[in-house]
Design a protein that fits this description.
This protein is of the alpha+beta class. The protein has five helices and nine strands. The site of flavin mononucleotide has 10 residues, from strand 8.
């Protein structure tokens, strides 16, 4: 076969294998988050007093320090020697990944590097829920369980990953209450549509989403 023909065949095959994912990560840069501030915040009992859901968001972006603190509080590494996290997980499988949907694109939180991996150069916020405010909140977290990382039976995978999501979500609630941010955890999601938009693998299951931002004035 002529070299040009081989190249054309290779490109055609690549396009077939990769599929309609040309915008995946393309043009979107990863973000190295600033060091999280792991001291301070309001006293726990005051934070518990303030914890609540709210669905009215300003479009104001989260400052980079706030985004860093939020993700560390959610599911960051709090014991570097063991790599363990701010939320528990069954058998320490750490099966929940946090995707971060912003106006600029979709990212994946890498707790070890405390960075955001570039996933998709598209604003998928509107696809993260069935309620209209999701497109206004500057950050929508999408909790995705990776069943391939779990060593349990299938029904246990569902139970354990739902529980793990709850712990992470509550960390986010508490951080938001401490910082004067608005948040709501959400189950009302068109999961197949969102999974498609995010190009998830079949063993990746969307559990919940959570909108975060400043209250609308
Ligand atoms: C598993 C779960 C799913 C939820 N799904 C949604 C949702 O899709 N949309 C929404 O607006 N609120 C949702 N919520 C938030 C609840 O409506 C809220 O927690 C409840 O009304 C109590 O209010 P509070 O959080 O302020 O105490 C959900 C909460 C949980 C725990």
């Amino acid at each position: 076969m002529k070299p040009l023909l081989v190249l054309t065949a290779f490109l055609a095959l690549s396009a077939l294998l990769i599929g309609p994912t040309s915008t995946f990560g393309q043009g979107l840069k990863p973000i190295q988050l600033v060091q999280p501030q792991t001291e301070g915040g309001r006293p726990l009992m005051q934070v518990l007093q303030a914890r609540s859901s709210s669905r009215s968001f300003s479009t104001e972006e989260l400052p980079s320090q706030v985004l860093s603190n939020l993700l560390w509080a959610a599911f960051g590494i709090n014991r570097p020697a063991s790599g363990k996290r701010t939320a528990p997980s069954a058998r320490n499988r750490q099966e929940i990944d946090i995707y971060v949907a912003t106006a600029g694109g979709l990212y994946l939180y890498d707790a070890k590097a405390h960075s955001l991996e570039a996933i998709l150069a598209e604003d998928v916020r509107a696809a993260t829920g069935r309620q209209s405010f999701v497109r206004e909140a500057p950050v929508n977290l999408i909790y995705v369980a990776d069943f391939s990382r779990m060593g349990a039976a299938d029904d246990e995978k569902v139970l354990y990953s739902a529980a793990a999501t709850g712990f992470i979500s509550q960390n986010v609630y508490l951080y938001c209450a401490s910082e004067g941010l608005t948040t709501v955890v959400r189950g009302s999601i068109d999961r197949p549509a969102l999974a498609k938009a995010m190009n998830l693998r079949p063993e990746q299951r969307i559990t919940l989403a959570q909108s975060v931002g400043y209250p609308k004035k």
